[in-house]
Amino acid sequence: MLSTERTYTAGTLSWSNTLYDKLDGQEVYWITLKNGATTVRITNIGCSITSIHTPDRHGVQRNIVAGFDSPVDYLRNPWYFGCIIGRYVNRIGGGRFHLDGQAFQLSRNDDGNHLHGGFGGFHRKIWGMGGAILNAQEVGVIFEYTSPDGEEGYPGNLQVRVKYTLDQQNRLALSYTAVTDRRTPVNLANHSYFNLTGFDDPLIANHRLMIHAKAYTEKSTHNLPTGNLLPLAGTPLDLSAAARIGDRIGQLAMDKGFDHNYVLDGIRPAAALYDPLSGRMLRVTTDQPGIQVYTANWWDGAIKGAHPEPYRQHGAIALETQAFPDSPNRPDFPSTILNPGETYHANTVFEFDLI
Q1: Closest to 346 in 3D by CA, of 319, 323, 314, 313
Q2: How would you classify the pairing of strands 243-244 and 189-190?
Q3: 121 φ, ψ to 5°?
Q4: Radius of gyration of the chain (CA)
Q5: Ramachandran angles phi, psi of 249, nearest 5°
Q6: Catalytic residue numbers?
Q7: C-beta separation of 135 from 51 below 8 A
Q8: Torsion of CA 223, 87, 284, 303, to 10 degrees
Q9: 223, 113 in Cβ contact below 8 A?
């Protein structure tokens, strides 16, 4: 590990940058954002959030996201811990879509489908440093990556910027922008897994979850949307009122838990997650039309991360704000096609609180 570190402060806010390693001539960093109460650590490999330390109701700090001890572990990252997914989060059926009369074949890395950007998606790229943010209101960092034409089968050169900012109100804002020189699908999201006990409880069964949605995208046995938007009322998926996650997981045997895209009611708020043990609350707001709720159904205890114990099934929950799955093949869904001359925008905020 290299030891070069720079730290800057403005009141209770601070920004530090540690040069961790060099891989094939590319510098790997750990960036730390602090506001006095919350500490967020990010690596430029996949723009991955490696830890978020927040206090419980007694002031005890814990890391509430799954992650690894070393940035270079994010070059593998089979469970997508904390990373940015792109060019397309979730699935594209058969890895195929048609655009402007041309068929495009993407890489197929999930039972014949294209998932989370493919084998070498954005989550495994070493992003460039696009700048730091430090003022009296917020502290942040900007990452940049250019996805070349044909990468994982996608058309067009896509220039992407991801900005993370942490403010004095314990809000971590994620802002995505992208431009292209050719029409292409774009659907970016962060894939952090949360356990608000800081994994003191290895399961999230006692967490309470609320999703501001009345419908979800029905899916087939291949985890692809059928095109139908079905009502949530009367189903185990209905989280319009806060519910204990453990009470619902057992009713979702086919998926071994939650793995569903909710159709959000509006741009804010989207979701609220609460842990009665610690008093920690996470609120999620977004301008995206959907949120994929996934309860780590296939974790098996084989992966050891930054926490003392291996990560177990239902040990955390991902709340992936996104456009709908397989939208390039569903003209009735909100479009995910970015045109030359346009700018893709997406925004999500994770707000940390105590109840």
Answers
A1: 323
A2: unpaired
A3: -70, -175
A4: 19
A5: -55, -40
A6: 191, 320
A7: no
A8: 70
A9: yes
| pTM reported for the whole predicted model | 0.97
Comparing CA positions, the residue from 47, 42, 45, 23 lying closest to residue 31 is: 42
Tokens 């994620």 sit at which residue? 174
With H, G, I as helix, E, B as strand and everything else as coil, classify residue 254. Answer: coil
SS3 344: strand
CA distance 124 to 111: 20
Residue 272 tokens read as 């609220």
Strand-pairing partners, residue 284, are 271, 350
Domain-wise residue ranges, the chain: 5-354
Structure tokens at 255: 């998926």
Give the separation between CA 290 and CA 38, rounded to whole angstroms: 27
CATH code of the domain made up of 5-354: 2.70.98.10
Q: How far is CA 27 from CA 73, 198, 333, in A?
A: 15, 30, 40
CA atoms in the 13 A half-sphere facing the CB of 179: 6
- Cα Dmax for the chain: 60
Three-state secondary-structure class, residue 245: helix
CB neighbour burial string for 34-45, b if at least 16 within 10 angstroms, e if fewer: bbebbbbbbbbb
Block means of pLDDT (10 residues each) for the chain, 355 residues, are 75 92 92 97 98 98 97 94 98 98 97 97 97 95 98 98 98 98 98 98 98 97 94 97 97 96 89 98 97 97 94 98 98 97 98 97
Is residue 67 classed as helix, strand or coil in its secondary structure? coil
